Amino acid sequence: MKQYCSKYDVSIKWYIMTSRENNTETVKFFEKNNYFEYGKENIKFFIQTELPMLNENGKILLETKSKVRKAADGHGGIFKTMLNSGVAKDMQEKNIKWVYIGAVDNILSKMVDPLLVGLTIDKKVLAGAKSLIKACPEEKVGVFCRKNGKPSVVEYTEISKEMSEEKNEKGELKFSESHVLCNIFSIESVIKMGETNFKYHVAHKKSNYIDENGILVKPEKPNAYKFESFLFESFERLEEIVILRVKREDEFAPIKNAEGVDSPKTAGELYIDFKNNNK
User: Fold this and answer.
1) Tens of pLDDT along 209-245?
2) For 277, phi and psi rounded to 5 degrees?
3) HEC profile for 190-218?
4) Residue extents of the structural domains in the chain
5) Distance between CA atoms of residues 202 and 108, nearest Å
6) Which CATH number is 48-129+183-277 given?
7) What is this structure's pTM?
8) Number of H helices and number of E strands within the chain?
9) Which residues of the chain, if any, have pLDDT below 70?
């Protein structure tokens, strides 16, 4: 982002949402690295809200004998968190008009894109998003669609095998426009979504807990349910959004797994390729 600050002679603020579990470590990492010379005054951290976790019998899990086990409430919770933490108000006071919201696990995420901003303004809509062509039916990405006439996304955990493999008359995947969590929202829409309740989706996860005897249990397989809301449900609250298709090699290097596909190793290789091709 530094090059854009210089290019446009502006100070682009960077708001970083952390979790209760990693906030202290994240802040210390930035401090240790002198905020990567971006300027401490340009960076603000805020902590994501959480929801209780349940075991497979529907009982609330405990983190300690006196503390309920909680987990982050999904990327859809960012709007309420921005509103309740004062981040949205801070943006308004700084006269920020547009907010880019991107995922931490995509190291090629282009956080400043004049094309996306300009396109969104030109089309007179309150939000824009980027897409790229799905690599294969099994790729773990949500896909854009229309639901009841409104822009929407079907998450990969909820799309049927038949729907993910459906082809159009050209023999291409019918649902191929991937939502890769690269979005821009007007500050007005951020506040509106912060005042809106999204539905929660259930995710089966592995989680440590304290059992009825006060003993710490570390399961080897998923044993608990967490509840998440999804950011893209905000699209359904809007009449229309802009979708900009981008090149995968330019803007998508995800880190989803420790090893193999979409791992730090593959993301690092994609990043090096990008740098070499854009010298």
Assistant:
1) 999 999 999 999 999 999 999 999 999 999 999 999 9
2) -85, -5
3) HHHHHCCCCCCEEEEECCCEECCCCCEEC
4) 48-129+183-277
5) 29
6) 3.90.550.10
7) 0.89
8) 9, 17
9) none
